[in-house]
Amino acid sequence: MTKTKTFISIIPFQGKDMLKAVTYPPHGNSRLQYGETRFPIIPVINGYAQEGDAIRIIVILTDGENFQHNYNTYFVPEVEALVEKKNLQLTGFEIIRTPDREDIDTQLRLFRDINDKIRDNEELYACITYGTKPTPIIESMALNYAVQNKTNTTVGCIVYGRYFHDDINCNNGIYDTTALFRMDRIVNELAKKKVKNPERAIRLMLDFALEQDGDDNE
């Protein structure tokens, strides 16, 4: 069965006129090469969605004027322009609304809401760039849970975008962090088996997974 490619992104807090379009040099994944954008998920859509593909967009939108402005003014137009350019089938554009709070009830509700949006037979792509510190943790937990509990649902790519406007010597760019997601699951399995040299075992398993990805992408 053909999987739907589902892209998950968090809308940032930056105030009006502060969220600048930049070019994120790719690190560890040449498919993430792209021009200027305000959202690292855009290079992911561009790199992984092919002409005619059915895609879904899931947006985590925190309550507040800045978030809503960035969603309406920047995110929606960028997605729509890319969908038209690549002739994609946008089958869903869904919003997860969350309060601007960090209490445990808010985080648990966000975990539940992300999982409620994820379906069977999906290839998941996510950006962990924006949001407060707990948000990417909840996002990764939700992806992990979905992979283990949904039918034929997997993770294709997770990215982090780093950009410091005032430091041209900084390692700016978009980073493929999918291996860290895999590593979390590997660590749990190794701990159960009480492996004596977990670092070596993790490296071997990650290298094998990267080789398999390379074969799949050819």
Summarize the topology:
Blueprint: E1 4-10, E2 22-23, E3 26-27, E4 36-37, H1 41-48, E5 54-62, H2 65-86, E6 89-98, H3 104-117, E7 122-127, H4 134-149, E8 154-162, E9 173-176, H5 178-193, H6 198-217
Helix pairs in contact: 3-4, 5-6
Could you write a compact summary of the structure shown?
By secondary structure, the protein is an alpha/beta fold. It contains 6 helices and 9 strands; from the N terminus they run ββββαβαβαβαββαα.
Task: Write structural notes for this entry.
The chain is an alpha/beta fold. It has two domains: 4-176, Rossmann fold (3-Layer(aba) Sandwich); 179-218, no CATH class. The protein contains six helices and nine strands; from the N terminus they run ββββαβαβαβαββαα. The strands form two sheets. The chain has a seven-stranded mixed β-sheet, with helices on both faces. A two-stranded antiparallel ribbon has the order 2-4. Helix 3 crosses helix 4 (134-149) and helix 5 (178-193) crosses helix 6. It is globular and about 50 Å long. It starts with a strand and ends with a helix.
Strand order of the largest sheet: 3-9-8-7-1-5-6
Number of domains: 2
Per DSSP, the total helix count is 6
Rg calculated over all Cα atoms: 17 Å
Q: Which series of helices and strands comes N to C?
A: EEEEHEHEHEHEEHH
Quick tags:
218 residues, alpha/beta, Rossmann fold, single chain, 2 domains, 23% strand
